[in-house]
Amino acid sequence: MSNALRFPPADPATAAAFFAAELAFEADPDDVARDLAAGTATGYRLVETRSAERFAELRVPGAVNLPHPEITAETTADWDRDLVYVCYCESSQCNAATKGALKLAELGFRVKRLSGGITAWRAAGFPVEGAAVGNSAVGSAAVESAAPAGTAPGEPAEPAGPAPVLACGC
User: Fold this and answer.
1) CB 118: neighbour CB atoms within 10 A?
2) How far is CA 130 from CA 21, 41, 57, 60, in A?
3) What's the count of helices (H) and strands (E) in the chain, helices before strands?
4) For residues 124 and 30, what is the distance between their CA atoms, to the nearest angstrom?
5) What element of type H or E holds 143?
6) Within its chain, how far is the Cα of 41 from the centroid?
7) 53: which residues sit within 8 A by CB, 6+ positions away?
8) pLDDT score, position 132
9) pLDDT tens string 57-98
10) What pLDDT shows up at residue 153?
11) Is the Cα torsion angle 62, 52, 67, 27 positive or negative in sign?
12) Residues whose CB falls within 8 Å of the CB of residue 13, separated by 6 or more in sequence, listed in order
């Protein structure tokens, strides 16, 4: 039996409902980048939910910063309730965007999460701004790890030990 079909697929109506619901919660980086490039990014605001330091370092153009621990009724009191707030963080391995979107939803805001965070945004080659722009040694998806002993800078190395820790600043 096929591993891919070990669990039978859902019927088309159930699959359609599932994928429609998934799209209700996620915004694709390509769609957001096209909106920004065309000047049609209306009806929503990008919210960087990582720390102020990470926001200053690197961000999606036009985003506002509100770290998820600081999201309260007071910090969002002047926010437009007619907008949808698209939260993002470092990557799919970080849940600051999920925490931020949850807090905003609990406060009555309509929300989505930017798929893949700023890591996916940069990987697609979309524009970024911040102090780290142009500095390949610093920026999104920075990792806290050192090159293995005996490896020259820039020389490929075999991975050793556990995967590096993502320095997401959440």
Assistant:
1) 30
2) 34, 20, 5, 9
3) 5, 7
4) 8
5) strand 143-144
6) 17
7) 169
8) 81
9) 999 999 999 999 999 999 999 999 999 999 999 888 788 999
10) 40
11) positive
12) none
Triad 83, 103, 166: Cα angle to 5°: 105
The token pair at 144 is 């806290």
Count CB atoms within 10 A of the CB of residue 107.
Answer: 17
Q: For residue 28, which amino acid is it?
A: D
Mark the ranges of the chain whose per-residue pLDDT is less than 50. Answer: 137-166
Between strands 165-166 and 143-144, the pairing is: antiparallel
Residue 2, both tokens: 């096929």
CA distance 46 to 39: 14
User: Considering only CA atoms, which of 69, 81, 88, 86 is closest in space to residue 109?
Assistant: 81
Q: What are the tokens at 26?
A: 């996620």
State how far the Cα of 121 lies from the Cα of 62, in Å rounded to an integer: 14
User: What single letter denotes the amino acid at residue 142?
Assistant: A
Instruction: Calculate the average pLDDT of the chain.
Output: 83
Count of beta carbons in the 10 Å neighbourhood of residue 60: 25
Strand (E) or helix (H) holding 16: helix 12-25
Question: Helix or strand or coil: residue 109?
Answer: coil
Nearest to 116 by CA among 8, 13, 33, 16: 33
